[in-house]
Amino acid sequence: MEVEELLARYAAGERNFRDIELFRSELSNVNLAGASLFRANLFRANLFRANLIGVNLYNATLIGANLYCADLSGANLSGADLTRADLSGANLSGADLSAADLSGAILSYAHLSYADMSRTNLHKATLIDTNLTGANLSGADLRDTKITGVNVTETKFSLGIGLSKEMKQELQQQGAIVEDMPEEPHASRLLSRT
To answer: For the chain, what are the domain ranges?
Structure first.
């Protein structure tokens, strides 16, 4: 399906676009709020500033996608592959990212307050000045994750892997809930601001 057809069908009231192929599509500034893109292929798609509020992207492929400043609040991204995706400045408040693959993703300045990130793979992801207030990162893989200046008030880190002892203590001092996390040899370290 071409982008023009997708947008025309959406404008006509259709919301189910399950298994759609939008490989490398130009979708910047589009409004697809409430659409179902279940298992959609959005590999390297440009979704810059897209309105994706409440969108169902369950098991979708978003490898290398540009989601810079996109609004994904309340979206279902459970099981989605967001490897190396750019989510800088994106709004993911209340989104379901459980079991999603965000390895190598950029989440700087993103809003993830009250997001479900349980069992999420954040290996080598970048979180700079990210808002994680009240988010659930239970069971998340945080190995080699760059974490700097994040808001972790009431953020739950438990049964995950990859945080150094120092990082756990720092997160707790900042208001995070940290428990039962084994220390890993490639642990994330809190990087001080200069």
So the answer is: 1-194
Alpha helices in 12-154 (DSSP H): none
Neighbours of 38 (CB within 10 A): 17
Q: Which amino acid is at 188?
A: S
For residue 65, pLDDT beyond 50: yes
Query: Measured in whole angstroms, how far is the alpha carbon of residue 165 from the centre of its chain?
Result: 25
Q: Of 100, 16, 17, whose CA–CA distance to 65 is shortest?
A: 100
Instruction: Report the share of the chain in percent with pLDDT over 90.
Output: 82
The candidate with the shortest Cα–Cα distance to 148, out of 162, 128, 173, is: 128
Fold of 1-194: Pectate Lyase C-like (2.160.20)
Task: Specify whether the CB–CB gap between 103 and 126 falls below 8 A.
Answer: no
Residues 6+ apart with CB under 8 A from 147: 127, 167, 188, 189, 190, 191
What is the rounded distance in angstroms from the CA atom of residue 158 to the CA atom of residue 40?
31
Residue 60, helix vs strand vs coil: coil
Strand pairing category for 177-179 and 156-158: parallel
Asked if 35 and 15 touch (Cβ cutoff 8 Å), the reply is yes
- Which amino acid appears at position 180 of this protein? D
**Residue whose token pair is 């990162």:** 137
